[in-house]
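Before the break, one more example. Copy the sequence into your notebook; we will annotate it together after we see the structure.
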Amino acid sequence: MTESDTHHAQPANGRTTKLSYWERRLVRHVLIGLASLCVGLLIWTWSPHRSRVEAISFATAYAGLAMLAAALVLGPLNLLRQRPNPVSTDLRRDVGLWAGLWGVAHTIAGLQVHMGGDLRRYFLPAAGGSPVSRSTAAFVTANYLGLVAALLLLLLMLLSNDIALRTLGLGRWKWLQRSSYVVRGHVILHGALYQLLEKRRVGLVFAFLVITGFAVLLQVAGVRARVKRKSVDPRVM
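Here is what the structure looks like once it is written out:
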């Protein structure tokens, strides 16, 4: 299912005309893209960084985190407002697409910040037979978590269309779509480990905690609202 909201434009002749489906999608993508870009630029200017690529890594990370949180709370907000909560909506898809784009961009930029861009050293401890330190183990773990999250984001981007929904069928499509919750967990752990490893400034830590905490709390509230509604109406999904 998709959104059926109708938007209108007021031309110079005073007659009201409806925007087409793709015009509405385009306008929404522009607004979402600008909003997430503003988040990224704010982080760019706010956070100290050692290089331009590190600044890009920070900016794309927080822009993607904000969009991922937004995509994950749209369903719970519908439940809390006692509104219909469709299996899929264009708004959720569009926000999710931007979360995926920023997440993939962050992965590409982040893999250039350390180790001189040597990808192997991001995922394998240095050879030599010496014991692996806790910081190295945390660094490698954080990178694997981020890589899995990026791959799952790519999967979710491929699923964000009616063709995938029709091809897979509702059951399989929804089962795969639930990987968004796995993404959330991996992103939170990945971000938390890097906050500790890099000893990030308080402002960045606070922003990370606010965004992730807001998303988690709303999802918990959404689950409770669904359980309450289902006890009244068993047909509620």
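The two ends are 14 Å apart (CA to CA). The beta strands are 8-9, 17-18. Try to locate both features in your own notes.
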